Amino acid sequence: MTMSTFIRTLIEQEVLHRRRFLLAGAAGLGAMAVPGVFGKGRAMAATNDPALAWSYRDRATAYWNSVVSGGEAFAESLGKPKSALVNLINEGSSEKSLSDLKSFLAKTGGNCAIACDANDSPNARPVVEAVKAANAYVSTMWNKTDDLHPWDFGDNYVCHMTWSDVKPAEDTARILFEAMGGKGGVVHLGGIAANNPAIERLQGLKNALADFPEIELLDAQPADWDTTKAAALMSSYLTRYGDRITGVHCASDQMAYGVIEALLAEGIDDMPIVSYDGNPEAVKLVQDGKLLATVYTNPYWGGGILTSLAYHAAIGTFKPSEEPNEHREFYGPTVLITQEDAAEFSAKYIDAVPDYDWNDFWGPTNGQIQYN
């Protein structure tokens, strides 16, 4: 299989998965949309009817498509169409993220509920300040600085959810190192340098290295969560380090696809590789033995529950300022996926659309965020 054919096949698989996912959502969660009734998976549309929006990177990847599909499922639980959720796509630009959000705030007069990944950590503060100034409501995901806290902004900054990526990334690294026989050279492909998950996933790798003195970290560079950039970076690693590379640690599935592409171009199809995100194509690669492991963060639930939290704060179902800190900053769930359990995982989370209660705000969370 050529490089272009490999990536084209993965893209086609992602498109087919998204179609199946959305159709299943329409037949399942969408069928439960009953306005004015509270119950599992349902929420009551409010009289002030705040506009809904998700601000995020792109919808071309399975990860972000799943996040926004969760937000759309929540919108449907209010008896609204999926199109009621406005997509503010920043295309990896923090400037565009802030500009689009300010335009949305102006258009809605602040009568809105927003879920947002600010693209990088420094951008989270101006995003939150803009929302506060408009008396709107926002829940954030993944990226913020350690000194930015929801409780410093009253009710308008509803909550922040991230994932504790250090331990899961360390777990995947240990799986990788065992497959390498406890010795050799490893390279790391990371996300955007200022992204919290990129920082934590690299730290997980470094933590595992402390117990494997015969494994050398040859290089660690960002590939910005991008398949094409990852393919180019892996090609440069191969040129520089050659057969000294005996294992690859990827900070996301999307970058792992690029790594596999670059390796296939050199006739290498047996390199131990681990990744992160639990995308459907990556889970299939784990089942097929092309990846050793990946980590699922349940982006569908995360996308839906952050939309729900912002919405319910906006309509006054609860006051965020009256909640404990562990309900304002919290970790989302993670699941380590290996070849042993990939088929079971796929049946539960990929082949079927889980039925979530969007009023159970903190059910699957993993405790309050801790800072070093």
From TrEMBL:
The family database entries (InterPro entries) matched by this protein are listed as: Peripla_BP_I, SBP_2_dom, TAT_signal
Q: Which PROSITE patterns match?
A: TAT
Q: Provide the protein's localization.
A: Cell envelope
Write down the superkingdom of origin: Bacteria
Q: Which Gene3D superfamilies match?
A: 3.40.50.2300
| Predominant cellular place of this UniProt entry's protein | other
Residue span, Periplasmic binding protein domain = 56-316
Name any one GO molecular function. carbohydrate binding
GO CC annotations? Answer: cell envelope
Q: Pfam families of this UniProt entry?
A: Peripla_BP_4
Q: Which keywords describe this protein according to UniProt?
A: Signal
User: CDD domains this protein is in?
Assistant: PBP1_ABC_sugar_binding-like
Concerning PANTHER family, the annotation shows:
D-ALLOSE-BINDING PERIPLASMIC PROTEIN-RELATED
**What does the sequence similarity comment in the record state about its family?**
Belongs to the bacterial solute-binding protein 2 family.
Name of protein: ABC transporter substrate-binding protein
Q: What is the lineage of its organism?
A: Bacteria, Pseudomonadati, Pseudomonadota, Alphaproteobacteria, Rhodobacterales
